[in-house]
Amino acid sequence: MKNSTLVAGIVVLVLIVDQMIKIWVKTNMLYGEMIPIFGWDRALIHFVENEGMAFGQRFNIPHGKLILSLFRIVAATFLVFFLRSLLRTPGITKGLYISFALILAGALGNIIDSTFYGMLFSASYAHGLPAEFLPPGGGYGTFLHGKVVDMFYFPLFEVQLPAWIPRFGGESMLFFGPVFNLADVAISWGVAQILFFHRGFFHNPPATEANQPQKEEEE
């Protein structure tokens, strides 16, 4: 299989599955609703939306939502050109291609939400009916002002912090608290693979095809 085909296949597959899950959750669940996975109360489908970054983090500055949406688009565009250049570089392992493909797929998955969902869906509420796709009265937001749909929630255990810890002493802490989606998983998985298995690429990047002839002439 060609490396370009592998990258394209991963991106398309992650995007399709990510959007299928999000659309199903958005149009079948009420906001805040929880559904146990295999009946386990520590693994839940928990429908929430966020206007910020991955894992429900917020970007609380004026026009933060618009800035974040534009930043995502610029970052994804840069990643597309970087990956395109990487595909022309000899000596790259398939593992590194897979890592960057996962990051790109995750970024694009959340870009779709923040860019288009405000125009495509009605608002989600804790009471009433689930959101509607292409509602007659229009969506809940405008272009670049959509909310990212999150649904995976794994509150594994809760611990009480010792009183001597500054600021947070005596408080309870939930592990693992964030609600996330498949796109977040793809980004995290891709980054983790690079950090653990492909760090050498950034220290000693392979020579590009353009540099190889020049190097041979110098020798």
The helix tally amounts to 6
Sequence stretches where pLDDT stays below 50 over 5 or more residues: 209-219
Number of domains: 1
In angstroms, what is the radius of gyration? 21 Å
What is the ordering of alpha helices and beta strands? HEEHHEEEEHHH
Arithmetic mean of pLDDT: 87
Strand order of the largest sheet: 1-2-3-6
Strand content: 5-15%
How far do the termini sit from each other?
34 Å
Shape: globular
Q: What class, by secondary structure content? A: alpha+beta
- Beta strands, count: 6
Helix content bin: 40-55%
The description of the largest β-sheet is: 4 strands, antiparallel
Can you put this structure into words, describing what you see?
The chain is of the alpha+beta class and 219 residues long. It has one domain. The chain has helices at 3-28, 64-87, 94-120, 182-197, 200-203, 211-218, and strands at residues 34-37, 40-50, 148-153, 157-160, 172-175, 179-180. The strands form 2 sheets. A 4-stranded antiparallel beta sheet has the order 1-2-3-6. A two-stranded antiparallel sheet has the order 4-5. The chain is globular.
